[in-house]
Amino acid sequence: MRIANVAGRLALITGGTAVDVETASAGRFGPDPQGVYARWDEFTAWAREADLPAGEPFDADDLGSPVPAPRQVLAIGLNYREHAAESGYAAPAAEPPVFTKFSSCITGPYGEVVLPPGGHTDWEVELVAVIGRRAYQVSEADALSHVAGYTVGQDISERILQTAATPPQFSLAKSLPGFGPVGPWLVTLDEFDDPNDLELGCAIDGEQVQLGRTSGLIFSVPALVSKLSASIPLLPGDLIFTGTPSGVGLGREPQRWLRDGEELVSRIEGIGELRQRFVSAKEA
């Protein structure tokens, strides 16, 4: 299944069209895209058995984040060995480095992002796992049963702000307005031949800058769910940004930052793509 937020309403995407869930379920499920995760088992059981009406065409610009208001947004640093190396760190061994992105930065898959004046704004394409069932102290073997599905995310990062304090202030620098685009929809795990091995990458104005596979994650999605839930409950609708492969601007020689007018396209195999255009503050 592909679950989307179309003009603020929960929808199922079928054959390039959108089925409004509230209408199709005769009001059993409401229109709020975020609310569906609290009833995930009930919703997916209904959706798999429902005789859905024909979908309606939709404008891609109406797509919002499939998870617009998560209670917790957890993010993992240095989770690909080559990215750890380009960042000047040893790859983590026993525990993943964890930070948060504030939920106010979450946006839909397409749109403009304002570049902070005088900043060094960087890109980080990431697989994002969405929690569908509360997970607390779950085993790695059972972890994927708590995941609703996957979506595409960009962990956009302001590097000057990130390094302005000691230790670095990751959460603040990665949570500016628009710095957490997610979408274009959520794809349930049964849609993938192998949900643990997906190609991901991004390009700036057609120039590929990142390319990797999620099989290269140091800590896989099941491992992350298990390790995170060992400390805190993961709640339905929470997001886990799982880490980025190598190729970010920080690790280049010379370093490279996003510029006014550039378009960043981020994609993951079997899910889809994000498109962000960056504009200077004076144009916003």
From TrEMBL:
Residues 73-278 form the Fumarylacetoacetase-like C-terminal domain. It holds the Pfam family FAA_hydrolase. Signal peptide: none annotated. Keywords: Hydrolase, Metal-binding. InterPro entries: FAH, Fumarylacetoacetase-like_C, Fumarylacetoacetase_C_sf. GO terms for molecular function: hydrolase activity. It comes from the Bacteria. PANTHER family: FUMARYLACETOACETATE HYDROLASE DOMAIN-CONTAINING PROTEIN 2A, FUMARYLACETOACETATE HYDROLASE DOMAIN-CONTAINING PROTEIN 2A-RELATED. Belongs to the FAH family. This is Fumarylacetoacetate hydrolase family protein. It comes from Catenulispora yoronensis. The lineage of its organism: Bacteria, Bacillati, Actinomycetota, Actinomycetes, Catenulisporales.
